[in-house]
Every structure is written in structure tokens, then in C-alpha cells.
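Q: Here's a chain of 145 amino acids. Please give me its 3D structure as C-alpha cells.
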Amino acid sequence: MDDLDRRILEQLLKNARASFQEIGGAVGLSAPAVKRRVDRLVAGKQITGFTALVNPAALGWKTEAYVEVYYRDNISPAELKRSLEPIPQVVGVWTIAGEADALVHVMATDMAEIEVTVERIRENARVGRTRSAIVMSRILERPRT
């Protein structure tokens, strides 16, 4: 990846809907040259996908929590994904250092749905316990780079 690729990525992070022509104008390339580079970045997995950022409230999600999950024994990242991916309210899962094995981001319509979701997480026989932190307000969010 060279400097031009990084500048193209910077433009895409600012506005993923920008046309190849608009990006080319910002980085000094033609639209076809930008398209070739973007295609190469996708093929090389430097760009792993395109998505829309949606206000969670638009989906009815007004309540969110971060749930620390403590397993009784070791669990692989693949098993974590298999067990938590089917739960639609689970919007993020990370393995973490420390006492907990995983941090799970849950978004729901209300506290009752958070409770039901945490209970679904606990249905896995390998889960020893959970600890939840409810989000009161979002203060700062930066786009992923």
C-alpha cells in the first residue's frame, strides 16, 4: 500500500459514498485509476467491506450494555462467535485481557430486552457468570479507521 492508497482510504473513510471521480479529484487521479486501486484494495483485503452507519434509535435500539462474560474454562474465538452470533441484539464481541474472557456489546429496545439477551448469553453451559454495564449516554464516537 502506497501513499496514494492511504489517501484514497482516507477519502473513503470520510465519505464512503463519494464517487471515484470525487475521490480522484481529492487525490490527483482519474476516476478509472481510483477504481482500479479500490478494486485492488478490496481484492487484497485492505478494504474488508462497505457499510452504512445507522442511528441505533432508527432500529428501535434505545438501550445498550457491555457485558463481560466469564467462561468456566478456555473458549476459542471461533466458539465465541458460534455461540453469540445468532443473538441479533449482540452487535459486537471481543476477546479481552483480564479476568473476563469476552466483552459483548448488546443493543436493545429497552431494559427488559437487555435482560432477556443476557439470559440468552448465560444459556451456554460453559458461561460461569456475566457482569453488565449499562450505557447511560454516548459522549464520543470516532469512525473506525
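Q: Can you summarize the key feature?
A: The two ends are 15 Å apart (CA to CA).
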